[in-house]
Amino acid sequence: MAKTSSAYVCTECGWQAAKWVGRCGECQQWGTVEVRGAARATLARTTKAAAPEAGREAKPITELSGDSVKHRQTGIAELDRVLGGGIVPGAAILFSGEPGVGKSTLLLDVAARIAGHGARVLYVSGEESTGQIRMRAERTDALIDTLYLAAETDLASVLGHIEMVDPGLIVIDSVQTLASDQVEGIAGGPSQVREVAAALIRVAKDRGTPVILVGHVTKDGSIAGPRLLEHLVDVVCHFEGDRNTALRFLRTLKNRFGPTDEVGCFEMTGGGIAEVADPSGLFLGRGTIPVSGTCATVAMEGRRALPVEIQALVASSATPNPRRVTSGVDPSRVAMILAVLERRAGVRLHDQDVYVSTVGGVKLSEPAADLAIALAVISAVSDRPLPLELAAFGEISLAGEIRSVTSGSQRVAEAERLGYTRIIDSGAETLAEARRAAIE
C-alpha cells in the first residue's frame, strides 16, 4: 500500500518539509512554506529489471561519436564565446536576468539569425502577443519567413506547435508563464515549473533540438522557482546590466559544454542589442590632455581583460565627518585604501571629501584595482596628473605592500596593446615606491 503524508512546500524554491515551518530550510525565506493539498504518495521501490529500448543499449565510450553534438554558431560572436563555441544540438539553455535588461530582445535576434540560415525557429511567448513581438522584430530587423511566433501559456499547446513546425531551435519566453493541466498549482509554482521544464527538456533530448528557456529572477537576483530547474538544464546564463547605462554583460553560471568563466559584452541600442567585440573604448577616457585624479587599470571579467579608467576627486570637507562616495567600486575596499594611504604613505585624507568612480558604469570587485584607486587618489590630492601612457594594477595590503594578482601577463599584454608603455604592478614592492614611479 502507498503511504501518504501531508506536504509543505516552499513557493520560492520548492523545498519540502513534513510539517509547517516559518522559514524555508533551503532559500531561508520567511513565510513561503505552504501546505500543498493532499498528499504525496510514497511508492514502492521497483525491483524488477526491464530491458532497455532498441538503440539505447549501453556501449563502450570508444564506439560513440561526438560529431552530432558539436557546437553550432549563432552568428553572434559574443554569445558564442559565452556558450563555448555555439549552441549544442539537444541542449537546454536557461537565460535569466532582471526585467527590462534585454533578454527577449537578445533571444529574438538569435532566433532571427538562425532562421536566416534556413532553419525553422519557434519562438513561444507567454508574456506578449504575437503582434507585440512583431513590432519588436521590425525595430530590430528580425523579420524572417522561417521564424514562427506563438503566444501560448498551455504546455500541451506548445508541444503541439513543436510537432507542427518541427523547428531547429525552440525559444520559450518564459518558463514561469507555462502551465500543464496535468499538474496542480498555478503557473510559476515549483511543481508547474518542474513539469514544464522537464517536458521541454525531454523534447529537446529526443528530437535533438536545442531549447532556450527564459527564467524570471527574484528580488535578490536569483532564478525564481525550484533549484531543480538549474540542475535539469545544461547551460545557465545570466544577463545583467544597469538600467542607467547601455552596457550589458552575459555570464555563464553553469555550462556542460564549455567554460564557465567567459563573459560576453553587449550594448543596448535603439535597434536592439549590439555585441561589443572590443569594449576597451567604453571604460576609458577619451581626452588627450592629462588630468589629475585619473588612472587606468586592467580588470579581468572571466577570461577577458578589460581596461578601465578610475577617476578620483579630493576636496576639502566642510563637515566634521568627511564624505566617502563611490560608484562602480567597493566602498569598504576604498575606505581601507584611504586608511593605508594616510598611515603608510603619509597622504592626509582625514579632513578631505573623497569621490571615486569608474568610467562607463562598469563595476569592479576584484582587489587588482587597489593600486589604480590609490594612485588616482594620490594624483587628485597633489593635483599632479599621471602620464597618459601609465596603467597600474595590484592588490594593496594593510602593511602598504603591493601584492601580485592573477593573470598578470594577460593584463600586461592588454595594456601594451592599447598603448600603455608604463605599467606599475607588483614590481613596486611598496606603495611609496609606486607613488614615486607614477609621479616622477
TrEMBL record:
<keyword id="KW-0238">DNA-binding</keyword>
<dbReference type="InterPro" id="IPR020568">
    <property type="entry name" value="Ribosomal_Su5_D2-typ_SF"/>
</dbReference>
<dbReference type="GO" id="GO:0008270">
    <property type="term" value="F:zinc ion binding"/>
</dbReference>
<dbReference type="GO" id="GO:0000725">
    <property type="term" value="P:recombinational repair"/>
</dbReference>
<keyword id="KW-0547">Nucleotide-binding</keyword>
<dbReference type="GO" id="GO:0140664">
    <property type="term" value="F:ATP-dependent DNA damage sensor activity"/>
</dbReference>
<dbReference type="InterPro" id="IPR003593">
    <property type="entry name" value="AAA+_ATPase"/>
</dbReference>
<feature type="short sequence motif" description="RadA KNRFG motif">
    <location>
        <begin position="254"/>
        <end position="258"/>
    </location>
</feature>
<dbReference type="GO" id="GO:0005524">
    <property type="term" value="F:ATP binding"/>
</dbReference>
<keyword id="KW-0479">Metal-binding</keyword>
<protein>
    <recommendedName>
        <fullName>DNA repair protein RadA</fullName>
    </recommendedName>
</protein>
<keyword id="KW-0862">Zinc</keyword>
<dbReference type="Pfam" id="PF13481">
    <property type="entry name" value="AAA_25"/>
</dbReference>
<dbReference type="InterPro" id="IPR027417">
    <property type="entry name" value="P-loop_NTPase"/>
</dbReference>
<keyword id="KW-0863">Zinc-finger</keyword>
<feature type="region of interest" description="Lon-protease-like">
    <location>
        <begin position="353"/>
        <end position="440"/>
    </location>
</feature>
<comment type="function">
    <text>Plays a role in repairing double-strand DNA breaks, probably involving stabilizing or processing branched DNA or blocked replication forks.</text>
</comment>
<comment type="function">
    <text>DNA-dependent ATPase involved in processing of recombination intermediates, plays a role in repairing DNA breaks. Stimulates the branch migration of RecA-mediated strand transfer reactions, allowing the 3' invading strand to extend heteroduplex DNA faster. Binds ssDNA in the presence of ADP but not other nucleotides, has ATPase activity that is stimulated by ssDNA and various branched DNA structures, but inhibited by SSB. Does not have RecA's homology-searching function.</text>
</comment>
<feature type="domain" description="RecA family profile 1">
    <location>
        <begin position="68"/>
        <end position="217"/>
    </location>
</feature>
<dbReference type="GO" id="GO:0003684">
    <property type="term" value="F:damaged DNA binding"/>
</dbReference>
<dbReference type="InterPro" id="IPR004504">
    <property type="entry name" value="DNA_repair_RadA"/>
</dbReference>
<dbReference type="GO" id="GO:0004252">
    <property type="term" value="F:serine-type endopeptidase activity"/>
</dbReference>
<dbReference type="InterPro" id="IPR020588">
    <property type="entry name" value="RecA_ATP-bd"/>
</dbReference>
<dbReference type="Pfam" id="PF18073">
    <property type="entry name" value="Zn_ribbon_LapB"/>
</dbReference>
<keyword id="KW-0234">DNA repair</keyword>
<dbReference type="GO" id="GO:0004176">
    <property type="term" value="F:ATP-dependent peptidase activity"/>
</dbReference>
<keyword id="KW-0067">ATP-binding</keyword>
<dbReference type="GO" id="GO:0006508">
    <property type="term" value="P:proteolysis"/>
</dbReference>
<dbReference type="Pfam" id="PF05362">
    <property type="entry name" value="Lon_C"/>
</dbReference>
<keyword id="KW-0346">Stress response</keyword>
<dbReference type="InterPro" id="IPR014721">
    <property type="entry name" value="Ribsml_uS5_D2-typ_fold_subgr"/>
</dbReference>
<dbReference type="GO" id="GO:0005829">
    <property type="term" value="C:cytosol"/>
</dbReference>
<dbReference type="InterPro" id="IPR008269">
    <property type="entry name" value="Lon_proteolytic"/>
</dbReference>
<feature type="binding site">
    <location>
        <begin position="97"/>
        <end position="104"/>
    </location>
    <ligand>
        <name>ATP</name>
    </ligand>
</feature>
<keyword id="KW-0378">Hydrolase</keyword>
<keyword id="KW-0227">DNA damage</keyword>
<dbReference type="InterPro" id="IPR041166">
    <property type="entry name" value="Rubredoxin_2"/>
</dbReference>
<comment type="similarity">
    <text>Belongs to the RecA family. RadA subfamily.</text>
</comment>
